[in-house]
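Extended Data, panel c. Modelled sequence:
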Amino acid sequence: MRALPYVRMMALTVFAVAACKPTPKTAAGAPDFHNPADAAQFGIHGDTGVAAAWRPRVFPDDPVRRSNMRGMVTYATAGPGTRTTQIFINYGDNNRLDASGFAPFGQVVEGMDVVDNLFGGYGEGAPQGRGPEQYRLNVEGEKYLARQFPKLDKINKATVE
């Protein structure tokens, strides 16, 4: 991923923390992708202790300076002042998100074919779709995902240039 030049360092730090699993020997702790039609979203840690430590933290919004086009990496948000650790990668032109304050902070520069092939069979998260329920992920962690969503892809390594 290439970080955009105007992004706060905090955004990059959170991305790195949210994207890395705690040990290379287990899948526990690896954030999983949920894959609705427009984007691949991830960022709630599979270790409930890590997720709980980050859940109350909110990061200042960045201005939207680039559009949510294919390959742009963007924080999910529920409105102004609500950014936490959830991030998504745009599959295509999602410029309708720009006016709502979804500010891209990076761009996939290599491996977008991998993003395109993430498992999307569960669709949107509950209750809108059959995907993971965020509350249960926060409370039950990786065990919930392994039991209920075994086909979700996992992040093994993330780098920021």
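The beta strands are 2-3, 39-42, 72-75, 87-90, 104-107. This feature is highlighted in the accompanying rendering.
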